[in-house]
Amino acid sequence: PGLSPVVSLLILRVQRHAVDIKLDPETANPHLLLSADLKQVTYTSHVTVIPINKSKRFSYMYVIADRGFSSGRFYFEVSVGQKEEWVLGLIEESVPRNKRPVYGIWALYFRIDKFCTYNNRNVPVGKVERVGVFVDYDKGLISFYDRKTATRIYSYTRCVFTEKICPFLCPCNLEFPTNWLPMTIVPVGHE
């Protein structure tokens, strides 16, 4: 069954701001394994050794996109499949890499059967397999959508951005059986 006309219009409106992003291997935590095309991340219990600038790497299980944004609107989609735990969102480019960020991060956290954000512990939407993220930098807006139903999961409003913000992914560790599954940046508009 197709989406309703209203839902289809909403998706089309945000999709026109689609950007092509890849993951930046220099920022990936050593326990994160990236695909050759830099679109997919999985957790690994083995430490990956890449001779790079260690100051750019996160000590937490994060990897950020290869580009940041400091104006305008943009949209991207991430497949989370059947994962039982993951984090996805935006992070300021200059956030400290040696500890879990507290400021300069706008994220959606999923664990088993519920969503949380850093300022709202109970976001009332069930499990999703694909998340759309829309950002209007100039209006201080970040919205997360269930891509399949076009249901808004959560929106951060009145955000004050003072620098470039970058998409980031966190596949979490192997606490749950399905967490070996990847998170994948997917082409917008393709099912």
TrEMBL record:
Residues annotated as domain B30.2/SPRY: 1-185
Source taxon at top rank: Eukaryota
Give the SMART domains listed for this entry: PRY, SPRY
Q: Please give the Gene3D superfamilies that the UniProt record associates with this protein.
A: 2.60.120.920
PROSITE patterns per the UniProt record, alphabetical: B302_SPRY (PS50188)
Protein name per its UniProtKB record: B30.2/SPRY domain-containing protein
